Amino acid sequence: MKNSIGKRKGKRASSNDEFINGERQKARELRKTKWWRNKTSQGHCYYCNNPVPPRQLTMDHLIPLSKGGKSIRSNLVAACKECNNKKTHLLPFEWDDWVQ
Ligand SMILES: [Zn+2]
């Protein structure tokens, strides 16, 4: 028997994109919050623990969005550009903000 109820097939590739876009948007919003300012004001990178000027810290997802990670506080850390850059699952939007 075919399962005719439920999701349609054909455009399912976009559902993940939608998820990622939504989470990216949330991350942008979180970056404007006091919580993020407090986090970056500590002035060091989550990964290498080197001192980094707050303005040079980037927002990084511990579990990448591409792996189903979410833009929630417990999944977000402040990382220096170098460490962020080393990560395989680089999130281009985080760099967009830097390349302004
Ligand atoms: Zn680092």
How are the strands of the biggest sheet laid out side by side? 1-2
Compute the number of strand runs. Answer: 2
Domains, number = 1
* Number of helices, where a helix is a run of at least 4 consecutive DSSP H or I residues: 4
- As a whole number of angstroms, the C-alpha radius of gyration is 16 Å
Order of helices and strands: HHEEHH
Category from helices, strands and their pairing: mainly alpha
In what range is the share of β-strand residues? 5-15%
- Please give the CATH class: Mainly Alpha
In CATH, the topology is named DNA Binding (I), subunit A
Features:
8% strand; two-stranded antiparallel sheet; mainly alpha; DNA Binding (I), subunit A; binds zinc ion
Q: How would you sum up this structure, described in words?
A:
By secondary structure, this protein is mainly alpha-helical. It has one domain (17-96): DNA Binding (I), subunit A, CATH 1.10.30. It is 38% helix and 8% strand. The protein has helices spanning 13-31, 34-41, 81-86, 92-96, and strands at residues 58-61, 76-79. A two-stranded antiparallel ribbon has the order 1-2. The chain is globular, with a radius of gyration of 16 Å. The mean pLDDT is 83. The structure holds zinc ion. Zinc ion binds next to helix 3.
